[in-house]
Amino acid sequence: MTSERLEAFSDGVLAIIITIMVLELEAPKEYTLEAFFEIVPTFISYLVSFLYVSVYWVTHHQLFKIAEKINGKVLWSNLYLLFWLSVIPFTTGWIGQGNHHTDVVPVVLYGFVLLMSQLSFLLLRNSIIKIHEKKSPIAVHFNRLTMDFACVSIYVIGLSSAFLNTYISMALFLLVGLLKVVELNSISKRIQSIY
User: pLDDT tens-digit profile of 106-136?
Assistant: First the structure.
């Protein structure tokens, strides 16, 4: 089974996710700095969410660029990832409305969705690695257990710290996104050296 249809479908879903998120952004109703500062939490939540969706899109592209085969488990794992990514606009919008960025429940739900996105991507990646040889390029370049453990640990700390301070949680979620960008850059360089 080839991956072209899976990639095309995934690209479409991710494009819709970004479109929904940007439609949630509303311009201030007044032309004052105070009105602008009122929408800053909404913009920051959009920025962090856009970073995440972008990282998953690029990583997904690179993963399937060197995947030689897929199976039914990969298809279902991909849909599981897309489900969690599709919930990001909802949690982004909830955090961005009013002062919900300081409320525990929206921040915990946002972090939980990001954590589940991470875990579902790991499931997808491991499903692909299992149908390839252990020394295949996909297994060598995408099996990053130390970074995986670090990201999951930071998510758990971020979820726990939301009960103390939601700003710490959001900073930790942003940290994971930035770590993913660094990791993605490293993977990109290694893949380009091969292909």
Answer: 999 999 999 999 999 999 999 998 888 777 7
Please identify which residue in the block is written with the tokens 């996105």: 117
Contact 78, 72 (CB under 8 A): no
Reported pTM: 0.90
List pLDDT tens digits, range 84-108. Answer: 999 999 999 888 876 677 889 999 9
CA 147 to each of CA 119, 180, 181: distance values in angstroms, whole numbers, following the listed order = 13, 9, 12
Report CA 36 to chain centroid distance, whole Å: 27
| Residue-wise DSSP of 9-35 | HHHHHHHHHHHHHHHH----SSSSHHH
- Contact criterion met (CB below 8 Å) for 179 and 151: yes
Rounded to 10°, the helix 145-161/104-130 angle is 160
Amino acid code (one letter) for 158: G
Specify whether the CB–CB gap between 137 and 147 falls below 8 A.
no
- Interatomic CA distance for residues 152 and 183, integer angstroms: 14
Task: Please answer whether residues 154 and 161 qualify as being in contact, where contact means their C-beta atoms are separated by less than 8 angstroms.
Answer: no
Taking the CA atoms of 9, 12, 14 and 16 in sequence, report the sign of the dihedral they define: negative
Helix (H, G, I), strand (E, B) or coil at 124: helix
Written as one letter, the residue type at 177 is G
Task: Assess contact for 157 and 172: CB atoms under 8 A.
Answer: yes
